[in-house]
Fold this sequence. Notes:
The complex is a heterodimer of chains A (324) and B (186). Chain A is α+β, with helices and mostly antiparallel strands and 324 residues long. In chain A, 17% of the residues lie in helices and 46% in strands. Chain A has two domains: 21-198, Lipoprotein localisation LolA/LolB/LppX (outer membrane lipoprotein receptor (LolB), chain A); 213-320, Phosphorylase Kinase, domain 1 (2-Layer Sandwich), CATH 3.30.200.100. Chain A contains four helices and 21 strands. The mean pLDDT of chain A is 86. Chain B is an all-alpha fold and 186 residues long. Chain B has nine helices and two strands, in the order αααααααββαα. Chain B has a two-stranded antiparallel sheet. In chain B, helix 1 (3-13) crosses helix 3 (33-49), helix 4 (61-69) crosses helix 5 (79-86) and helix 4 packs antiparallel against helix 7. The radius of gyration of chain B is 21 Å and the shape is elongated. Chain B starts with a helix and ends in an 8-residue tail after the last helix. In chain B, 37% of the residues are buried. Mean pLDDT of chain B is 58; it is low at 50-77, 88-138 and 181-186. At the A-B interface, helix 1, strand 1, strand 2, strand 3 and strand 4 of A face strand 1, helix 8 and helix 9 of B.
Amino acid sequence: MKLRGFLLCLLLPMQLQAHDKASEQAHYWLDRMAKAVKRLNYEGVFVYLHDNRIESMQLIHRADREGEQERLLSLNGVAREIIRDRNSLICILPDSRSVVVEKSRSRKYIPSALLNDTGRLEKFYRFRVVSSGRIAGRDAQVVAVIPKDGYRYGYRLWIDRKTGLLLMSDLINERGEVVEKVMFTVLRIHDKIPKERVAQTIHSKGYRRFQLKAGDNKAHSRQHNSPWKVMRLPRGFMMTVHASHGMPTSKGQVEHLMFTDGLASVSVYIEKSSGKPALRGASRMAAVNAWGGKVNGYNVTVVGEVPRATVEMIGKSLRYTKAR
Amino acid sequence: MTDSIKEQISALVDGELPASERELLLRRMESDPALRQMWRRYQLIHDTLHRDLPEQVDTGFSERVMRAIDNEHIESLPLAVRLARLARPLAGLAVAASVAAMVIVGVQRIGTDTGIDTIPVATTASMPRDGFRQVSGTRWDTQQPEVQARLNSYLVNHNEYSAATSIQGILQYRRIVGYDAVPARK
Lengths: 324, 186
């Protein structure tokens, strides 16, 4: 008995250590990836597999002292394009002859403490370095992010050993099925990329432009005077945004609440009902789920890259309380 | 071989053969290798011509096909299963699986040896590890364009606010850039 106890004492810390090490390695790769994606100059072509279709897109990313600039262009069908820099996000949609301009709001809305708190994330996900592979002719380290419940998705990420860039990713739903796959077929890393390469390539003359006036872009905090309250949240989700702001396709102000567990995030949008058609019940686009309902004369829409159960739980628990 | 039987096989491949004629033709095919050969050829042509993918696919199909391969009582089996059985002399299970894979095109299913051990894996026993499965729906599965536009606008906004947590950066926008690239239908 004594010996067994002794062995157990010996084994237990070793197991814990092994567990921590596996997780630590995964965090090292994820951290490297997060930095590489932002800091490097690269261009590539990737395929996007979802539902029963396959699409191909070109991505160019440039980083300099002025920040990041990137361009995403669909290579099949309608040539849609997205151009993003630190000021704006421009979507050019030739099929609807429209240009939608949003304010670029990169990385300001989530407290960095939440992002860097890996211990907190460990409560909701397990992180593992799984194996190695080869994608787009490059050696990859495979990292798995495994959710501990059905309210968030899992990911399998193939990360370039040399640069840390993401080469392939699987998005795994709550039933363990891969529902989206992104895979680079060509990826080139450069020291520099000329500015022209991230400029708009498809013409948009005469297209309808949806853009807010500078002032309407501003988000006003609603934390202290809002009548809206979410009564139920999946474990670990915290509110990081509660504001009202204009949106290119909405007339009035839209109240916006965002919740995140540090990895997955969900937004709630609340608009006064105008009688126009609005989402009722659940809707889905690839791995993104949405849920819509009407509460107290307002259209409520919940959107996020999370399972349906998550948007439903949040949407159905939204209450209109007397404004404080 | 008569022209009428060729027409019948062609109709069978197109799913247009009346049920009353189907039974007799299947019985003849089961005993006649030349007819089976012809059916396979027609099937191949049909598949090549109709590269566009079906909207709705029965995901239990491949499993039933596989189960049926070893079933002796073929008379009672559904049409698809009996057709799959006719393909058996080619390569048995593998053919059945590929017959299924031809129609079940979708997203790869995760395997068991990936280390992602807590995620339930329920692949059928004889399904290849990277077998394809269909997931229904494309774009927002709502029919109203106005609702779709509003949802896209929300999604773009949400992507911007959540950029810091996303592990995919601008790749998030792949859904906006490619979301309704509907294949041309004949």
